[in-house]
Amino acid sequence: MHAVSLPDSKAHLRPALGLLLLTLAGCGLLYAQAATRLTGALFPAQANGSLVLRDGKPVGSLLVAQPFSGDGWFQPRPSAAGYNPMAAAGSNQARSNPALRARIDAAIAEVAQREGVAPSQVPVDLVTQSGGGLDPHLTPAAARIQIARVARTRGLDDRQVETLVQAATEPALWGVFGQPRVNVLELNLAVEALARSDTR
């Protein structure tokens, strides 16, 4: 009988390690660098967080909600994360949770008083938190209900502010996906620009 010769493990180890290193370098480094540079070149604004700049300084992102204080601003959806991008989350409260119902009832009463409308007229997105807690959009109805307050505080005509809301209303994506929406940051910047131009 002839003895069976076992393959030299070292001879197979070298090409395997070489392939491993080549794959790591190609997929883990070169591909990632190429994809990052390509997307940065094709979509520079989105690749940098869709930041909005004023006088060269960032004032916010079109992708992340932020709080606005004062009656002269359109208010965004409530945030379970306190508008903190590092803690994005929903409330995780079940619909059967009495605390959720109590919070929503209190929010409805607050919004109704702030906007001078009946509680039944308060749009649901002004009193409920989004899943991520940082939704930068409102429904057109939630923006329209705030027009009178913002216009009055800014010394503007309601129709002027309504025109801004209409201009800021984005349609459903490709006319099919999602619902019409209003980016709160864009709308507030437009209101501020209009108020400044009216005072000149």
TrEMBL record:
It is a single-pass membrane protein. GO terms for cellular component: plasma membrane. One of its GO terms (molecular function) is hydrolase activity. Keywords: ATP-binding, Cell membrane, Hydrolase, Ion transport, Membrane, Nucleotide-binding, Potassium, Potassium transport, Transmembrane, Transmembrane helix, Transport. Signal peptide: none annotated. InterPro entries: KdpC. It is found in: Cell membrane. The system is composed of three essential subunits: KdpA, KdpB and KdpC. Belongs to the KdpC family. Part of the high-affinity ATP-driven potassium transport (or Kdp) system, which catalyzes the hydrolysis of ATP coupled with the electrogenic transport of potassium into the cytoplasm. This subunit acts as a catalytic chaperone that increases the ATP-binding affinity of the ATP-hydrolyzing subunit KdpB by the formation of a transient KdpB/KdpC/ATP ternary complex. This is Potassium-transporting ATPase KdpC subunit. It comes from Pseudoxanthomonas composti. The gene is kdpC.
